[in-house]
């Protein structure tokens, strides 16, 4: 179990140190991922930016993801959803609109702190505080790939064991510290998993090293 996000990120950074990285850029999924990303960027001498994707919540179960939507509006659905997709099409359309609204709100907040980073030709490290279903991360990776990075490394403290192979399909390398067989929630692996508020994430982004832009 990790003490908090900073503790987890420090251990993760130790796994990544020493490897050759070309103009490294850490892309963090807000908001908890920004805490992880800030530590990785500092320890690896990398730039820091955010990448915006949101999970699509299951009907009546907001903690359960049925998929995710990326900043460009593309939707990734979990495999188990396909069998009852017809019955929730209208719900998913509404949920997608809602989450795109939240992405737009966050874009205004975070891009006010700093412009988007250039990812082309760089070693890009995508991070979050953990991966349970993998849908948000996979939607994120699809977006990241569109910017032609040199390589994409996913680095997370914890990932559900049955998601490892699927996430690996979308990146060049997957680095993690723990892969429990039964991961019900990422927060179970942190003694302190306090919610990260927007001002905290914005301050971390603003205080990070200058991001290279085109």
Task: Give the strand order, joined by hyphens, for the main sheet.
Answer: 2-1-6-7-8
Count of helical segments? 6
Helical residue percent? 25-40%
**Helix and strand run:** HEHEEEEHEHEHEH
What is the fold named in CATH at topology level?
A: Rossmann fold
Condensed summary:
The chain has 214 residues and is of the alpha/beta class.
What are its keywords?
214 residues; alpha/beta; Rossmann fold; 5-stranded parallel sheet; 3-stranded antiparallel sheet
Provide a descriptive summary of the structure in words:
This protein is of the alpha/beta class and 214 residues long. It has a single domain, classed as 3-Layer(aba) Sandwich (Rossmann fold). It has helices at residues 5-16, 32-44, 89-113, 135-145, 164-168, 198-207, and strands spanning 25-28, 47-50, 53-58, 61-70, 75-77, 123-127, 151-158, 173-178. The strands form two sheets. Strands 2-1-6-7-8 form a five-stranded parallel sheet, sandwiched between helices. Strands 3-4-5 form a three-stranded antiparallel sheet. The longest helix has 25 residues, at 89-113. The chain starts with a helix and ends in a 7-residue tail after the last helix.
Secondary-structure blueprint:
Layout: H1 5-16, E1 25-28, H2 32-44, E2 47-50, E3 53-58, E4 61-70, E5 75-77, H3 89-113, E6 123-127, H4 135-145, E7 151-158, H5 164-168, E8 173-178, H6 198-207
Parallel strand pairs: 1-2, 1-6, 6-7, 7-8
Antiparallel strand pairs: 3-4, 4-5
């Amino acid at each position: 179990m990790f003490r908090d996000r900073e503790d987890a990120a420090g251990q993760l950074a130790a796994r990544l140190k020493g490897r050759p990285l070309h103009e490294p850029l850490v892309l963090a999924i807000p908001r908890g991922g920004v805490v992880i990303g800030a530590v990785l960027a500092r320890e690896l001498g990398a730039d820091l930016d955010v990448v915006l994707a949101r999970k699509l919540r299951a009907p009546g179960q907001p903690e359960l993801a049925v998929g995710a939507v990326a900043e460009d509006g593309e939707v990734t659905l979990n495999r188990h959803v396909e069998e009852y997709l017809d019955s929730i099409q209208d719900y998913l359309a509404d949920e997608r609109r809602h989450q795109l609204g939240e992405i737009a709100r966050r874009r205004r907040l975070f891009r006010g702190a700093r412009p988007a980073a250039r990812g082309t030709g760089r070693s890009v490290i995508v991070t979050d505080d953990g991966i349970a279903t993998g849908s948000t991360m996979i939607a994120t990776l699809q977006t990241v790939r569109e910017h032609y990075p040199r390589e994409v490394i996913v680095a997370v403290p914890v990932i559900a064991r049955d998601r490892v192979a699927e996430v690996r399909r979308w990146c060049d390398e997957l680095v993690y510290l723990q892969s429990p067989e039964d991961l019900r929630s990422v927060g179970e692996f942190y003694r302190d998993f306090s919610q990260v508020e927007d001002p905290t994430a914005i301050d971390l982004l603003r205080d990070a090293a200058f991001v290279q832009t085109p």
